Structures are given as C-alpha cells and as structure tokens.
C-alpha cells in the first residue's frame, strides 16, 4: 500500500506466459496472434491479469484482458480461484442487468495452456482510481477533480450497486449461494471465519480480528433482509471510468448472495481505508467523498430500501479487509519482504480503525 514497498504479485515469467498465450489463442481463433502482451504494474495479488491485443484479419485488432487464477507457488491470497464462477457471474450480470461489464470472449478451464484456468474478456478503455498511490492522495486525478465531478462519480457508482441488487433475479444467481447452514448473512460470515482459520494455519493468531468477530455477534442484525447478488469487491478501484462515468465494472471473484448492506458497507469502508491512510500521512484526503450518510441516502432514494445496521456492516467490511491484509502480510513474510513483529495485529495496516470500530468509537 502507500506506506510500504509493494509486495511481489507473481512468480510467473511474463515472457513465457506470452508465448503460451499465443499458442493457445491459435486454437480458439486460427491465424490469430497475441501482440503487446503486458502484465500491468497494478496487477493484483489474487487473480493475475494479462493485457494483450489480438491480431487477426477477422475481427480487426481487438484489445483484451485475461484473468488467470493465481499461481499456487506465489503464496496465494485466497484458498481457491474459481474462474468458471467468475466467468458465469460476468455473463449473468451482462445478460440480466444494464451494468457496464466487459464482454467475455472465452473461458479455459484446462490448466495446461497457461498453468491455471483463465478467461478472456474485451478490454475497456478509461481510467481507474489507483490504489498505489491511493486516489485519496494529492496528485491523483480524482483528488484533483472538482467537488461536482466527484459527486457525479459517487452518484453513478452507488447507482451501479442499486441496479445490480435490483435487477438480477435471485433464481439465476443460485450458483453463488455460499455453503453452510443458516441464512445468507450467517453463511457469509461463516465463510470469513473459515478464511481466517486458513490464513493463520500454523501462524500467529490475531486477537484484534477475533475480537471483531465477537463484536459482530453482539451487533448481529435482527432482520438481515433478503439476499441479493453482491458484487463482493464493491469499490471504485474496481471500476473503469470514462471521465466520471462508469464504463466497466471489474473483479467479481468475491461475488456471493448476501444482504444488500454487505456491498454497501464494503464501498463505504474501503474508501475510509484509503482516506485514513492519507490523513495519517498528513494530507487532507477526501473526507467528504463516499460518506456513509450520503451513500445510504443515495441508495435508499434509488431502491426504496433504507440501509440498516450499517455499524455492523462497516465493521464487517473492516474485519474482512483485515483478514486479507493479514494474509498479504504473511505472504510478505514468506517472501522475506518483512519480518514478523511481536504483535501480529500490527501487520494489519488499518488495525487502528478496526480497533476503534470494535470499541464503537470510530464513527463518533
């Protein structure tokens, strides 16, 4: 993140990937070549991304992005990468909503061609609010925008969630039901407990994360509400914008059935995460952007559903993010990029705000 050297994202050789991709592409589109294959500098630490152009007489040059399941040798952030699930989710959203999502071209479930399953989609031109350095820092295009431009982007982004939640028939999204017992929220939280157990297997536990789980039980909503298709990683860093209008909604690997507020809490808190980092560095950040009260009001006006129990859902978002951050930190330890501190909670970049949420003082 902004306060530490960026950890490695892959152990794969980009040139070897490019060669194998060209070979595979010829099986799907005879005579085609993969040109200009690059791994973006912003490549994530979950699924990997390759960018390339297809050279072929029919169709003409086409810009593409390839999502490749994470390299198991790279100490993966998540225990599994179901590319078929992501592909089906993208197609479902494209077929059943008016959300702008990239058009998916091919799914390859056989791991042999590139070493892991992947899918290819058309690449959408535009700009994305960066994570490194965060868009909340001075100098980013979003920070330099006017208040009216940021308000336009905020309204359009909340509109994405409203339309997604309202437009996808639940029956069509049954494949995104999480395993386990209980309602959709209980299954979602149970899955996060399992993820945390996987992260700390053989390593130091996090007293802060465990306290946050305990606090969730105390705040548990009396009526979680009916589940809807949740985007999962619902944040502006996963949207491509043309100017200040969304033109592509990306990264569906965390999609699941859950109450609407799971997405809303993630959207609100993930902005606060970057804003808090920025404020801690002495900059002003963007305190009036994606404010919790405004996001709730916008969403209610668009859907008729007034968000409930948002103290629970923002805490849940901070907790989920903390588990990811702990895994990323242990990944850095694995690659000898950082040392293990005496207090494992300090490996969580936002341990201060998470602790404040557990104590009930963060939103004061």
TrEMBL record:
<dbReference type="GO" id="GO:0016740">
    <property type="term" value="F:transferase activity"/>
</dbReference>
<dbReference type="InterPro" id="IPR051678">
    <property type="entry name" value="AGP_Transferase"/>
</dbReference>
<dbReference type="InterPro" id="IPR041726">
    <property type="entry name" value="ACAD10_11_N"/>
</dbReference>
<dbReference type="Pfam" id="PF01636">
    <property type="entry name" value="APH"/>
</dbReference>
<dbReference type="InterPro" id="IPR002575">
    <property type="entry name" value="Aminoglycoside_PTrfase"/>
</dbReference>
<feature type="domain" description="Aminoglycoside phosphotransferase">
    <location>
        <begin position="82"/>
        <end position="278"/>
    </location>
</feature>
<protein>
    <submittedName>
        <fullName>Aminoglycoside phosphotransferase</fullName>
    </submittedName>
</protein>
<dbReference type="InterPro" id="IPR011009">
    <property type="entry name" value="Kinase-like_dom_sf"/>
</dbReference>
<keyword id="KW-0808">Transferase</keyword>
């Amino acid at each position: 993140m902004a306060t530490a050297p960026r950890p490695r994202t892959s152990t794969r050789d980009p040139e070897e990937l490019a060669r194998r991709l060209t070979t595979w592409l010829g099986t799907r589109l005879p005579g085609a070549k993969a040109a200009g294959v690059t791994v973006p500098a912003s490549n994530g630490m979950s699924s990997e991304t390759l960018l390339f152009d297809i050279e072929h007489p029919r169709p003409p040059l086409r810009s593409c992005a390839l999502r490749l399941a994470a390299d198991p040798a790279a100490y993966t952030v998540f225990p599994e990468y179901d590319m078929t699930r992501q592909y089906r989710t993208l197609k479902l959203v494209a077929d059943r909503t008016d959300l702008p999502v990239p058009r998916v071209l091919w799914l390859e479930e056989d791991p042999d061609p590139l070493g892991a399953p992947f899918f290819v989609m058309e690449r959408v031109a535009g700009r994305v609010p960066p994570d490194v350095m965060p868009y909340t820092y001075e100098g980013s295009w979003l920070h330099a925008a006017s208040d009216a431009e940021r308000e336009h982007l905020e309204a359009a982004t909340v509109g994405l969630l409203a339309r997604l939640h309202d437009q996808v028939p639940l029956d069509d999204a049954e494949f995104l039901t999480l395993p386990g017992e209980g309602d959709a929220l209980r299954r979602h939280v149970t899955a996060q407990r399992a993820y945390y157990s996987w992260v700390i297997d053989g390593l130091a536990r996090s007293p802060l994360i465990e306290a946050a789980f305990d606090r969730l039980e105390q705040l548990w909503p009396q009526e979680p509400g009916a589940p809807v298709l949740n985007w999962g990683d619902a944040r502006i860093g996963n949207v491509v914008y043309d100017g200040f209008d969304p033109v592509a909604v990306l990264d569906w690997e965390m999609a699941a059935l859950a109450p609407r507020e799971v997405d809303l809490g993630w959207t609100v808190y993930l902005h606060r995460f970057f804003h808090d980092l920025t404020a801690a560095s002495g900059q002003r950040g963007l305190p009036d952007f994606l404010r919790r009260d405004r996001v709730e009001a916008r969403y209610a006006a668009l859907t008729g559903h007034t968000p409930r129990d948002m103290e629970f859902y923002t805490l849940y978002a901070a907790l989920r993010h903390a588990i990811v951050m702990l895994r990323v930190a242990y990944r850095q330890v694995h690659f000898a990029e950082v040392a293990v501190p005496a207090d494992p909670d300090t490996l969580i970049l936002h341990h201060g705000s998470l602790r404040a949420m557990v104590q009930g003082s963060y939103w004061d």
